[in-house]
Amino acid sequence: MASQCAVAITNAKNYARALNGAQIAEQLRLASVIQRRMIPKTAPKMPSLGIAAAYRPCFGVGGDLYDFIKLDKYNLAIVVADVIGKGIPAALMMSSFRGMVRAYADGGHQRHPMAEIIQRLNASACSECRDGEFITLFYAIINTKDQTITCCNCGHEPALLWRQGKIRELKKGGLVLGVTQDAKYEIETIKLLADDRLLFYTDGLVDAVNFDEKIWGIDNLTKIFKQCSTGTADEIVNHILTMRRRFIGLAHQTDDTSIVAIRVMEK
Description:
The chain is α+β, with helices and mostly antiparallel strands. It has 6 helices and 11 strands.
């Protein structure tokens, strides 16, 4: 009788583990569905801009987001963000945040300066984020009529501006979103020239590691981006991802990767 009880208990524990594993797998599947639905299927068409983007999920589910918001005929908002977290909570948080960005950007573009929009996003993030949660954001608006980019970096990886073979990091901004209501943000406006290239990305791109546990890093990204003197935005994205794949091989990654490339063309 004792042995039969022991077997029954063991079977029950195994069943509970299997059930728990199945529930976790289903949660990851649902989070993955939520996240993929937020990723734009195609890049928008804008005058004098070539635009390309790619999303590479890891095995798990992270909080990556990139988005394009066509504000009017001449203005395009580019959003690249990362919720610090995993699984369904991160996916749901990013879904909510994407809605907030679209509402504030689309509704406030003509009436509110970018600094005010960022302040509103931070206030909303402070209300939504729990302890230890926050959101990194790079928010930019490209005006194709004035040939300018206006941007703010909220604790995110710096966007890169390629101009005549030299790289400039776009770092101006402030703290990550969701930490304090008192955060202040600096806005930067840059005049764009024909043949400039812009690169936006999440940390999964540069934090990728190979089997020797070496990090690909910002230096490799900058070096490869410097070499992109020719080619379309699609070719830039493909070349960077190909070179990163050669470095990491088949090593398992623990973070998603998002990348957006923009090439400025003659008007």
